[in-house]
Amino acid sequence: MPELPEVAAIANFLDDHAAGFPIRRVDVASLAVLKTADPPYTALAGRIISRTRRIGKYLVIETTPGADSAADAEPVIDLVIHLSRAGWLRWSENLSPTPPRPGGKGPIALRVHCGMPGEGFDVTEAGTQKRLAVLIVRSPGDVERIATLGPDVLSLSREDFGAILADKGSRIKNLLTDQRVIAGIGNAYSDEILHTAKLSPFATAKNLAPEQVDTLYDAIRTVLADAITRLEGQEVAKMKSEKRTGLRVHARTGLPCPVCGDTIREVSFADRSFQYCPTCQTGGKPLADRRMSRLLK
């Protein structure tokens, strides 16, 4: 799943390559990804991309009227993209002028012709669980899930972060990935953050000692800053592999912990899992994995 570092890097990439250029055309290959109807996606054609930014894990492409727009054209229309678990953006300098086939079996959901002639990007989604969301809105605040986001994780002071934890009785893993509480962190980086902070994913947020909150706060900023730095200047096509190479515990089940050498373990749920190191994080004790327990009966 693209999280804060990847979405920020994609936003920076698009800002460098498309800001100031018109959107020549938008092709929709999957109507299911469109979660809004007013304004229609066709209203984007001819508009100028003014900037691209990030809100939480949402990509926001702001557009303004083009030179040939009507006098009453919308002053701002935002193309908002939530890549969800398996979405991605694929930039091309030789984008096919042939629209992708609607309802096709390929991964392309949306194609935007922008940038220099021939340039543009595809919004793609792998797998069978289609959760990608594309919204065309007058303001990101019109999107309920954006309007209800918690504060951006990188905007939080130590005091504000501590206050959030002190008010929550949930497991720290769940709190870090709840976008209504703190925006930007997902499954992968929460694993990395908790490993760096040497905290159990099952630790209760409000029960953390002040020094543990300090360590966790520092780990969040260190892990995210490192990921942002590694992705800086990367081509979009290389960002996925760059993310994987920087992960120490997430998606490394069965491999040795790079800190202590213990075996990385996993806790599985219905449709996802997380990884941790018993020695570094749980005093050497494996966490209960109910799904695996059922399979072993």
UniProtKB/TrEMBL annotation:
Belongs to the FPG family. This is Fpg/Nei family DNA glycosylase. The keyword DNA damage applies. Residues 248-282 form the FPG-type domain. GO terms for molecular function: 8-oxo-7,8-dihydroguanine DNA N-glycosylase activity; class I DNA-(apurinic or apyrimidinic site) endonuclease activity; damaged DNA binding; zinc ion binding. One of its GO terms (biological process) is base-excision repair. Pfam families: Fapy_DNA_glyco, H2TH, zf-FPG_IleRS. InterPro entries: DNA_glyclase_Znf_dom_DNA_BS (IPR015887), FPG_cat (IPR012319), FPG_N (IPR035937), H2TH_FPG (IPR015886), Ribosomal_uS13-like_H2TH (IPR010979), Znf_DNA_glyclase/AP_lyase (IPR000214), Znf_FPG/IleRS (IPR010663). Transmembrane segments: none annotated. It comes from Gordonia asplenii. It catalyses: Hydrolysis of DNA containing ring-opened 7-methylguanine residues, releasing 2,6-diamino-4-hydroxy-5-(N-methyl)formamidopyrimidine; 2'-deoxyribonucleotide-(2'-deoxyribose 5'-phosphate)-2'-deoxyribonucleotide-DNA = a 3'-end 2'-deoxyribonucleotide-(2,3-dehydro-2,3-deoxyribose 5'-phosphate)-DNA + a 5'-end 5'-phospho-2'-deoxyribonucleoside-DNA + H(+). Residues 2-104 form the Formamidopyrimidine-DNA glycosylase catalytic domain. Its cofactor is Zn(2+).
